Amino acid sequence: MTNPASGLINHISLSCSDLAKSRKFYDFFLGELLGYHTIMDQPYCVMYAKGGASLSVATHDEIDQYHAKIVDFYKIHGGGTAEKSTHGHVVDAPSLYPQYAKHYYAVFFTDPDGIKLELVYNEGY
Questions:
Q1: Which pLDDT score is estimated for 20?
Q2: Residue 2 lies in a domain
Q3: In whole angstroms, what is the distance from residue 27 CA to residue 86 CA?
Q4: Which entry of 17, 43, 72, 125 is 20 to 30 Å from 6 by CA?
Q5: HSE-up of 49 (CA within 13 Å, CB side)?
């Protein structure tokens, strides 16, 4: 059994204003780039999973006001895929960011709702 204090994430839920636009973005980002699989696809929500972790994206109407404000930033660590196109708006170009770690290579970008995301390759992590 994994130690719950180890920092593993079970799931993340995001709200969106336009599920069709978000589905297209996350199908590419999570599906094509990172190998996640769609495990639920409803008119109001889509959920992706890989290795015991999942991420769901749902319309604002399906998420109460508390949860709609919780997530505005999260990280996804992708082994060496930071240079590939994300079909999002790039905020900070793919580059080494030595202020974070010696071999920290990342790209920062936004999804269709402006949620800032980071794709990282950190050698030895």
A1: 94
A2: no
A3: 10
A4: 72
A5: 10
Which pTM was predicted? 0.62
Question: How far apart are alpha carbons 87 and 10 in whole angstroms?
Answer: 26
The amino acid sitting at 20 is A
For residue 96, the enclosing domain spans 9-122
Q: How far is CA 44 from CA 13, 35, 48, 55, 112, in A?
A: 13, 23, 14, 14, 16
- Say how many domains are in the chain: 1
Predicted pLDDT of residue 61: 65
Contact between 57 and 45 under an 8 Å Cβ cutoff? The reply is: yes
pLDDT tens across 11-34, in order?
Answer: 888 888 899 999 999 999 999 999
Three-point CA angle 124, 49, 19, nearest 5°:
120
